[in-house]
Structures are given as C-alpha cells and as structure tokens.
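Backbone-to-sequence.
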C-alpha cells in the first residue's frame, strides 16, 4: 500500500497538476477540496456523506501516468490509474477527462451525463458524483451493498462445499437446516445476511434439488445453482436494483440481471 498524499489547497497550475491534486483529495478523502478541482462545483455539506462512504470503502487511487491532448474547448487528459478498494483487489484502468482553463487554473469539466451502473471511467464517475451527490450516493451505496453481499455469499458457498466434502461428498443439508449445518464452517453468522435484505427469512437460499445429491451427480457444476438470493426457488432481484447474486456448485459467484435466471441450471 502506498502512502496517501496530504494537501491543503488544490494545485490547478496545469492539467497534470489538477488531476494529481484531484486524486489526492479523493484519497484523503476531502470532497469539498475535490469539488474545487471541478468546473462550476461548489463545496456542499452533502459531500460529507460521500466522504464517509469513501472512508468505509477504504478506496485508494494511484496515478500511474498522464498524457494530454488539445481539444476545441481545452485539454483531454488520459490517465492510467491503479484503483484499490478495501478488498485489496486492485485494478488498473485508463480514465479520460476534459479540462478547461479558467484564468490561471485548469479545472475538470463536468460530464454531460454519466451512468453509474455502467463501466464509465473512474474520474468521470467522481466528477459526476460531485455535481449530483445526493442521487449518486444512493447508487454508490447500492454498489457497496451488492459487493458486500457477493463477498458474503462467496464465503457461504465455500462453507457449503466444505461441508459437502466432509460428509461423504453429499449435500446432507436443506434450506431449513442450512444455517445450523454451516455454523462450524463460518467465522461469523452475519455472513448469512445480505446488507440489502430487510426480511426475517434467510438472505441466501439453498437449491433444494441438490439435497441428498453427491458431487459426482452434478454434470455441470459451473452452471448449477447451489445458493441464491431469494427463497422457494425464486431469485430476489429487488435487493440490488434488478441484479441478484448467485453461487454455483464450482464455488463461483456471479451477479445476474433479471431475465438471466431462465438460463440457470437447477437440477444436477
């Protein structure tokens, strides 16, 4: 883990300086400072909520390189970034943003429209968030909860698989006794709960078609459902805005969209 940069005032002297200063303010995180890097954005009390979100996510961004090219309205900066969330699963991406010179300062131009459900460039997402913090905070929280749910489901899937291996390679459990059977295999009972699920029933359901079946009876484990968000054989797509997490018999976990459940295999 690299050290976080500490800044008090933005450095807007060049496109490269603005990008590096903007990233440093996100790492801090100080989003009212970050807002000073974006054209026509003013500091806001709402941004403090976003700071709490970024702090909880333990997000760290490193600038690996910046190239610039002139545009009719200013400059396009193409940045290579290393983005590491608290999970430690870092990724490298290329992020392009527009900048405009205002007096002696270079400022990031707000994107016209950004879909946070798509794979937009990271810096564009951050600039869009600063321009509409209330609406984007809801979407970001949904992403955070869905990711946490997926990590928890993964641990439950692995625990279920280990239970099966320790019981003659047979799924000697069902939906009713799942939590009890897996208790020795899970470090925390909260792993059985999706943070977006408010109902009293368990967050994750076991595929009852596997009860009493052995591993050798499953022809396509990578396609066969082991655990899913929902109950009674019905996947719940309401928790994450039309997306649900599903665990498979090869211990993989995937997020699927509504309609894709028709392609899943339930019977071994």
């Amino acid at each position: 883990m690299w050290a976080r940069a500490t800044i008090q005032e933005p450095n807007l002297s060049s496109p490269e300086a603005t990008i590096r200063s903007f990233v440093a303010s996100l790492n801090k995180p100080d989003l009212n400072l970050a807002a000073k890097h974006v054209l026509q954005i003013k500091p806001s009390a709402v941004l403090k909520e976003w700071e709490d979100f970024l702090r909880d996510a333990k997000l760290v961004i490193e600038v690996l390189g910046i190239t610039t090219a002139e545009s009719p309205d200013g400059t396009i900066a193409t940045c290579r970034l290393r983005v590491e969330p608290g999970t430690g699963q870092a990724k490298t991406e290329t992020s392009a943003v527009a900048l405009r010179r205002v007096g002696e300062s270079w400022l990031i131009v707000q994107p016209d429209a950004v879909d946070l459900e798509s794979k937009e460039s990271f810096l564009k997402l951050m600039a869009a968030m600063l321009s509409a913090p209330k609406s984007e905070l809801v979407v970001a929280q949904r992403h955070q909860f869905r990711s946490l749910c997926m990590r928890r489901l993964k641990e439950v899937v692995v625990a279920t698989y280990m239970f099966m291996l320790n019981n003659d390679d047979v799924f000697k459990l069902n939906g009713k006794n799942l939590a009890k059977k897996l208790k020795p295999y899970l470090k925390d009972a909260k792993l059985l709960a999706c943070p977006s699920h408010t109902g009293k029933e368990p967050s994750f359901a076991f595929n009852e078609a596997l009860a009493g079946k052995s591993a050798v009876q499953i022809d396509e484990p990578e396609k066969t459902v082991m655990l899913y968000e929902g109950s009674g054989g019905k996947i719940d797509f309401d928790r994450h805005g039309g997306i649900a997490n599903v665990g498979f018999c090869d211990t993989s976990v995937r997020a699927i969209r509504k309609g894709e459940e028709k392609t899943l295999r339930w019977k071994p």
